[in-house]
Write a structure and sequence with these properties.
Structural class: alpha/beta
Number of strands: 10
Radius of gyration: 24 Å
Strand content: 15-25%
Strand order of the largest sheet: 2-1-3-8-7-9-10
Shape: elongated
Largest sheet: 7 strands, mixed
Helix content: 25-40%
């Protein structure tokens, strides 16, 4: 073998080694990325998860609303990426505790009793105006001492929360918004930013207040982070002082 042939052979071998090393590095990076996603979402390989959705009573028979269906599709794609499985149930059939399986709960407490129960037991600092009468506070969020009103089609709020508790330690994700389109926006926000959220919060609890901007024009695509309200949402809401009564003498 001549010197030129030997040099060529060594060059080819070096290129092959570089390609294999690069492939192995990418495979290892992809595996670590998958494990981080699985840990954040509480979805190891072949695990089970629960998607809980409310019912839309506008038709002759209660059905899942169109925005909620889009939200479920976003979440189902995330679950599939984790090599896990999911079961979709309505709020009135999900009569079980939490923590054994990762749960994604979508909807408003007025149409999703399980959402209402989670807010009461896990986020006592959150109050939501569910009164149907029109007015400036209709659908408003009260978190701690701050009130967040809804401007329909202009600015609407939604809570995105990752909470832990119960038996098994699997998380519960809440997507609770002021209008039907807002939970869909929150699920899309989670799908787009789960890696950033995992780096910041790990496998801990967080409660984020998001704002859907100009949904009349942009639908659920434009979402802003308003604030991290974890502390205020978990602390019991202050009880208004009772008024003292005086009898006339």
């Amino acid at each position: 073998m001549t010197a030129e042939q030997l040099s060529l052979l060594l060059g080819v071998l070096g290129a092959v080694v570089c390609v294999v090393a690069g492939w192995l590095a990418r495979a290892q990076w992809s595996k670590r990325r998958l494990r981080r996603r699985q840990a954040f979402l509480g979805l190891p390989d072949h695990s089970e998860s629960l998607l809980v959705v409310g019912r839309d009573g506008g038709g002759p028979e209660p059905v899942v609303s169109r925005p909620d269906m889009f939200a479920l599709l976003e979440l189902a794609a995330l679950v599939k990426q984790c090599r896990a499985h999911t079961q979709i149930v309505t709020h009135d059939t999900a009569q079980q505790g939490f923590g054994e399986r990762t749960e994604f709960c979508v909807g408003h407490p007025s149409s999703n009793r399980r959402m209402a129960a989670h807010l009461t037991s896990l986020l006592p600092g959150v109050r939501i105006n569910t009164e149907p009468e029109p007015g400036p506070d209709r659908g408003a969020f009260l978190i701690g001492g701050e009130r967040y009103r809804m401007e329909q089609g202009v600015g609407e709020h939604v809570l995105l929360a990752r909470l832990t508790g119960g038996q098994g330690g699997r998380p519960v994700f809440l997507f609770c918004g002021q209008r039907p389109i807002t939970p869909q926006a929150a699920t899309r926000y989670l799908a787009r930013h789960h890696e950033k959220l995992a780096r910041k919060y790990g496998t801990g609890t967080f409660v984020l207040l998001l704002k859907v901007v100009n949904s009349a024009a942009y639908g659920s695509d434009v979402v802003e982070l308003v604030a991290d309200v974890t502390k205020a949402a978990q602390e019991p809401a202050p009880v208004p002082a009772a008024r003292s009564s005086h009898r006339a003498k």
